[in-house]
Amino acid sequence: MLFALQAAATSIQAQPITAGQHTRVETVYGPIEGYQDGRIFTFKGIRYAKAERFMPPQAPDKFTELRQCKVYGPQAPQGESLRWNERNSQTDYGFGNQFVTEPMDEAGCLVLNVWTPGLADGKQRPVFVWIHGGGYAGGSGHDLPCYEGRALAEAGDIVVVNLNHRLNVLGYIDLTGLGGKYAQSVNLGMQDIVKALEWVRDNISRFGGNPDEVTIGGQSGGGGKVSTLLAMPSAKGLFKRAIVQSGSTLRQALPEQTQAFGRAFAQELGQPATGQADFSKFTYDELNYAVQRLAQRGIRGGFSPVVDGTILPQHPFEPAAPTAKDVPMLIGTDFNEFTFDISRNMTWDEAEAAVRQRQGERAEQYIAAFKKAYPKAEPKEMTYVDTGFRAGAVKQAAAKAAQGGAPAYLYLFTWKPESNALGASHGMELPFMLHNVSLQREMTGASDRAYKFEQLVSSIWLAFIKTGNPNVKGVPQWEPYNDETGVTMILDDKCEPRHHHDRELMQLSRSIW
Length: 513
Known about the structure:
This protein is α/β, with parallel strands linked by helices. The protein has helices at residues 2-14, 88-92, 150-156, 168-172, 188-203, 221-229, 255-268, 284-296, 348-359, 363-373, 381-384, 388-402, 430-433, 441-444, 448-467, 503-509, and strands at residues 17-18, 24-26, 31-33, 35-37, 40-47, 67-68, 111-116, 125-131, 159-163, 209-219, 241-245, 329-334, 408-413, 487-491, 496-499. The protein is built from 16 helices and 15 strands. The strands form two sheets. A twelve-stranded mixed β-sheet has the order 1-4-5-7-9-8-10-11-12-13-14-15, with helices on both faces. It has a three-stranded mixed β-sheet with strand order 2-3-6, with no helix packed on it. A hairpin with a 4-residue loop joins β2 (24-26) and β3 (31-33). It is globular and about 65 Å long. It starts with a helix and ends with a helix.
């Protein structure tokens, strides 16, 4: 199996990159040229919108001269602290590898990338729009090697799209409290993503894609953005299916707090707390310094989407699921999440002592609940198991099931690499579901076992992208989640459905989170 995969990779690498008339597409805004890499046509850095600072995005300008779309466009401006320095993730994940040379540009970051197996070939393929993580503060559509969409497009005969959008203070400050021209200056990063989805609706058929068969997906902060899109009226009808990976978001911020911060932000910059404020003359760093000064005085913004009543009328999943009743969902988490070093071995006595120190009077219940949920687990795993992300995913799946509409399928990713200490940590599923184990070798180990598992996991994601149902050969029957059966599919070398297996553990842990 590994030899065959490596041989296929070698044959792909041996094929020349070509460009010219055969790689040109006439978008609704103007002509662009990409390149052909093996069987896959690639277009990078396509402008999907334009926006003035702190203003809602608008459709991009039309053009007549051919534009070259062969390199990634700029990422959104973001702080140095988001480069994950001196973390295991720096070496094992590859975070930061491209930050050194990747340009940041506020005006130019509204770009997307497209990978497709065919142009003008008469096919209308399913479309997968991938939304990057990094919270609402950092990241880009190409800051991890495995975000490359080429391999998944070829493996599944689908069109893959990923994108950049405004982040942090530029994308998630709430200035609606100033009034006037800032009446819609909220959820700007989310408004950007909606514009990208509108671009897909209007253009993707020209890239061999079907605008009526769009699946949105995202991990971590990307999962939060997907959760939020489900509750946004402007996004309704722009996608058919949704995938949330380690980012189930039930609630968002409230305007009572975010508007007060917006007014304080304006005044900190010497501007009136009204629609007459002018932020255009400040650099990105000056905006950030103002945020830091406010934080030092105890005035915090916490940049994220806001339930403003219009763009986001309600919390995504509380008290009920969003209005997207007919959208099937694939929802899941990783067994370890943000435990990035599980190299230390423990005896049961050591693990139980650590739990008693952390859990106090609930320790004995917690120990019993863990052993019941995971009877084959190693002792150290009791101290490393995630309960926060998992609890949110279970609650999101339950809210979705309560709609009585399209199904929600719940998974728990427990596969661990042999080659490092990450375990089934936050994002471990990414190279597998994106069919890019070979591009994230430091993380996965690139073993025979890893390549075999890649085939299974990517086939699950592709099945859901194409049909809204993740059932594939090699996985036991996977039923939709409901409160009665509580089905979670364990994704590992051997997949198995479990029924409310960790309910007691969740009940003990949920109050912590």
